Amino acid sequence: MSQNQIYFFDTTLRDGEQSPGCSMYTTEKVRLAKQLESLGVDVIEAGFAIASEGDFASVRQVAHEVKGPRICSLSRAKEEDIVAAARALEPAAKSRIHIFLASSDIHLEYKLQISREQALELADKSVRMARNYVDDVEFSPEDASRSDRNFLCEMVQVAVDAGATVINLPDTVGYTVPHEYASMFRLMKERIRGAENIVFSSHCHNDLGLAVANSLAALEAGARQVECTINGIGERAGNAALEELAAAMHVRQDQLPFHHNLDLKQLYPTSQMLSEVITFAPAPNKAVVGSNAFSHEAGIHQHGVMSNPLCYEIMTPSQVGVPANKMVLGKHSGRRALNHRLKELGYSLSRPDLDLAYERFIEVADRKKSVFDQDLVSIMLTHLRQSPNLGQHGSSGSSAVAAPQP
Ligand code: KIV
Ligand code: ZN
Questions:
Q1: Is residue 150 in some structural domain?
Q2: Within this chain, do residues 82 and 186 fall inside the same structural domain, yes or no?
Q3: 137-157: per-residue pLDDT in tens?
């Protein structure tokens, strides 16, 4: 394995799901997990098994049906959590229990109301217990970036000595900046006995808009796992966006010479599938997968791009799976153009369904100048909700629109 091999740990189904309006049913999680497998992620955090019956069922079902990536469940440093995670992960081909425990004084005092010594005991006990169930245990000192560095090292050493295989240093509140975050990883590599056998991992939140920059800084400082989500969804301002990390590594191989297992062409289809499941799309100006990410409005830019796309494009849409030749649809577009675009988005409609979708499309086009992909996805979703009988015509046989097949 190359020293520069990066493991992508996707937490869309866990941290991503924690963002308002993003909860998902088990069937939706399984569908997304299969797509994440096609995308080539190394680890899928499928949920927090103890959190609810639904979360338990999701972790178990993903573990049952998705055999490529390692499947992970989150767990507090508590016996009942570890047991629930282990049970949910039983069907997995490769499994991991991810234990988190606060390391910052503010969390220890006000959230957990325990002393540093008690926290160290819990770290030791919980990691040892998890190792009785699985070979692969990740330990996260929560709020690591706001923790006293000496105590952080102490806690990480306890977790490593107890058998943790992956040490994740979360920037839980999105507070750190790149050089500071990088220095935490260097410190661990210097101070932790046995660091050479540990995979260090970054986990960044985007409260200051620095999640991707901080994650890349961690990789440069020796982290080899990066935790992230599709479309950057997650608690509050979200997590580091997987597609942005992957695109940065691709476009700036000269500066970021990392290898990974992702198939970049699956980035856009995965983003689209998530948008459909959670019923909202990323902002139009979102890097890599936003609807404007490859649009050129200014005449001078359009001219430059037509002469040579490299004038204003650092990557081509097709490299990240965005269908080439994205036509802008409006009220003058016909059924054929609509059908073509829907097919590119993965929807295959029968003629009667297309007629109904077209009616709705014209209504939307009348109100807006241009109809974007997210409008089309929401038209499809409205169809499914409002016209249950459409299924009789649908090409999938059971629903009005065949599920997108990237
Ligand atoms: O942000 C965070 O600290 C987390 C942990 C559970 C890893 O999501
Ligand atoms: Zn998080």
A1: yes
A2: yes
A3: 999 999 999 999 999 999 999
Residues 19 and 89 in one domain: yes
Testing ligand 1's pocket by substitution, the residue of 19, 74, 138 carrying the most ligand atoms inside 8 A of its CB is: 74
Kind and range of the H or E run holding 101: strand 95-102
CB atoms within 10 A of CB 70: 21
In the block, tokens 């090292």 appear at 153
Q: Tokens 């089309």 appear where?
A: 376
Q: Which residues sit opposite 99 in a β-bridge? A: 75, 139
CB 276 less than 6 A from any atom of ligand 1: no
Cβ atoms within 10 Å, residue 363: 12
Half-sphere exposure of 189 (CA within 13 A, CB side): 15
Final residue in a domain of this structure, among 278, 313, 331:
278
Number of residues that this document lists for the chain: 406
Same domain, 158 and 31: yes
pTM: 0.83
Q: In CATH, what number is assigned to the domain containing residue 86?
A: 3.20.20.70
Are 370 and 269 members of one domain? no
Q: Please give the tally of structural domains in the chain.
A: 2
Q: How many CB atoms lie within 10 A of CB 150?
A: 10
Ranges assigned E (strand) in 117-215: 137-142, 166-171, 199-204
Q: Give the tens place of pLDDT for each residue, 264-303.
A: 999 999 999 999 999 989 999 999 999 888 876 565 665 6
Confidence at residue 333, expressed as pLDDT on a 0 to 100 scale: 85
Residues 217 and 99 reside in one and the same domain: yes
Domain coverage including residue 391: 305-406
AA letter at 28 = E
Which amino acid, residue 55? D
Report if residue 289 sits inside a domain. Answer: no
Q: How far is the CA of 312 from the centre of ligand 1 (A)?
A: 37
AA letter at 207:
D
